[in-house]
């Protein structure tokens, strides 16, 4: 399978394959990795230099189908930053020219900041010699006219921790007392779950697939048990760990189960993970970040026949409030 990317600022198609010589999916590292001042990179590592966390200065580019971009958009939403940080949405259908702005399409926007037709132009504007993949999410700095960062978890950390006192009232997604646990969970679920489904779906050897799909279901089994007696991954409070988990879980039954061969069982067959997913989905602000047509028909099944099922209801009652006595913590 070929891939498209920029090489020294030039758009190339059909480059290296996605897999290594053992048939295992190989994810390339992202390359813009600056941090906004005040971000907690981890529980005990706070960024003391870099651009300031100001309202109106930063802009987020996402695709609604992409789970990584979804995590960034969701953190922006829950942290109360929808007015402070603007956002544009590319076409979920990615063809030879890469991510494209198609404002005429339902749920998509133009590039309101750089006026680009393709997202790759934004990368070249940031670095005319850029070599690498053109991925979402992208966090753009309108003051310095460059990309701050294009790694989802780092953008999520910035939104969750650096913008205290900026924007509207939102949830404190990185509360004191939970931080080490949140960091540990985010690390643990990346390889096994968030990227695990991709390792299963893109595997080109039986061994690579077996290993990946086993990791996925071992981890889901584990978290299902944890969620038997606590409401959220880190305990009583909805945190950044749940925000990282959500985009993968909400895609699971409609996409990963069938398109990525993660079909040992559906997520909605899990006793606790399924109500947990509905609980998150029904948290104010979350459902509006989920666009299933972008995710399914135009995303994972683009150019193919979209399968019919399953018929599940993210809005069904979940009754998980019984597990948590704490009011959600807000930050202004
Ligand atoms: N490590 C990156 C991965 C982002 C990523 O792979 N995004 C995909 C969409 S789900 C993409 O833009 N792919 C385009 C490409 O690889 O050319 C992150 O978490 O932000």
Automatic annotation (TrEMBL):
Q: Where does glutathione bind?
A: 99, 133-136, 151-152
What the entry lists under Pfam families is as follows: GST_C_2, GST_N_2
- Catalytic machinery residues: 66 (nucleophile), 198 (proton donor/acceptor)
**GO CC annotations on file:** cytoplasm
| Alphabetic keyword roster | Transferase
InterPro entries recorded for this chain? Answer: Glutathione-S-Trfase_C-like, Glutathione-S-Trfase_C_sf, Glutathione_S-Trfase, Glutathione_S-Trfase_N, GST_Omega-like_C, GST_Omega/GSH, Thioredoxin-like_sf
Molecular function terms from GO = glutathione transferase activity
Site feature location: Lowers pKa of active site Cys: 256, 300
What protein am I looking at? Glutathione S-transferase family protein
Q: Where is the GST C-terminal domain?
A: 175-308
Which taxonomic lineage is given here?
Answer: Archaea, Methanobacteriati, Methanobacteriota, Stenosarchaea group, Halobacteria
